[in-house]
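$ fold --in a.seq
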Amino acid sequence: MWLLDVIFEYAAPFFLITSPITSYADQIHSIHRSKSSAGFSLDIPLIMLIASIFKFFYWFGSYYATSLFVQAVNMIFVQLVLLKIALNNRPTPGAKEGIEHVPFTAQRQDNSFMGFSRPYNFWRWRSEKPYWTFLSYFTGILFVIHVFLPFISQTETYINILGVAGLTVEAFLPVPQVLANQRSRSCKGFRVSVLGSWLLGDAMKMSYLFYTQDVIPPAFKFCAIFQCMCDMYLGLQYLMYGAGTSKAQYPSEKEIHLG
């Protein structure tokens, strides 16, 4: 039993803190080495940055476990680096590249995603500046509310909104892939190594959240369960469909817009 206590109290927090680096360092290195981000979805840094920024400000109202806060800070740094590398190495429009590294493959030529159009071509901009402008405004608004509007930032309702928003956004990371696989009856384009890292992360996260003595808000546990269920269903899809040829009609590589 003492071994489990050591794992939950020391190993799991260490894994959570370092998970942003261990999960995305290979992707950053791969893009930098190949000088191309073809096949990489810019939605990944978008989702993780929004979720982590929410969780960063949430900590100042909830003071949840320090390891989870440090994880959020590390994730922001890693995703900013990943976004910068990906933007600097984007292929020219229409370049024919492989899509084997695309976790979200159901993108359409009309800048829609899973059937939903993106207003103002959101997060599909050709120029690099709008990405940083959006992130600056988003972070700046939360900072202004936190520092200059304490009658809002110190309310329980606002604090809960930050927590639920951040955790919900992060929990929905696997959902587009689940829907894409279900629609195509295939896991083509989804690497089993990505699935393995997600499932390992779920196991460590669930162990820590439910067995640690640290203060863990219920929202963390609920969203962790939801994300774990989605990742497990991804594994089931891989067993059912494999990585064979898709049965649905998807756009070719030339039609996929990466920003």
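$ fold --in b.seq
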Amino acid sequence: MFRVNDVLAGAADLAFSLLAQSVPAIVIGVLIAEVFVALHITEAIARLVRPVTRFAHLCDEAGASFMLAFISPNAANAMLVDFYQKDTIDRTELILASLLNSFPAIVMHWRVLLPVYIPLLGTAGLIYFLLLTAVGFCKSGLIMLVARLLLPGRSHCDPAVPQARRIPLSRLPREVFCAAKAPLRRILVITVPTILLVALLIELGVFDRLADVLEGATRLFPVPAEGLGIIAAQFANFVAAASVASPLYYSGAISTRDLVITLLAGNVLSSVTRSFRWLGSYYIAIFGPRLGTEIMVISTAMRNGLMVILIFALARIWQ
């Protein structure tokens, strides 16, 4: 009974933390979307990213979401869901736009990664970060190309109903909050119970056991024996991995080449558990079970496919 109480208490704490991170961003995203709709300002904002959206045949609403993703990916994707539920964008464009929204998050990771990798890993840390960014560019380029092939060319989405005249600013708060109630209710009804379930699974150690199984897959990659401990640490977090790698790197036990390849391989393997661990608190919470799973699988498969190609290319070329 004591163990059960500990698990439930830990799951409750974790769920509260996840909800505190996710729910405000979702609410903000939906409210911003409603403001954009009410004031008809998506086209003005989308001009900043028009070269991207025009090439990919994405509409202005998707461009506005892409801009918001540089500040909050959660809010940006919640905005997309709001547009989708209003039939402003269709399912295909929702998936492609949400995949493209992952690029700003990759670019903005420098604020978290560089302060850790540069001091602890020096040149190897910088190379690793640049390669991750390059993979993000390639993934985004592929998404834009696929979108260009699948979507019709247009700059503005035609909503299912005619747009009303612009709402006076004095009525804007009331109109926005009233319009946001329905989409927020639909999203949060899925979000809250899903996050509670994910938190419970994390506390039960389900994802830790999955990580233990995946560690055995390191033999599939060209990783030296010295790198196995680094990969094991990556299943915890990137700070732990850098801390384990630093003394090995500066003592000469592992070369720059081998360390970079090891970090890339560990990133691929640990991304599987990361995807499952945060599937509920991010993808399913925002997009729903079916669509969220589909987007997560496509995004992870594209990124890891490019990473695997890069790993074996580096192992062959970088001697």
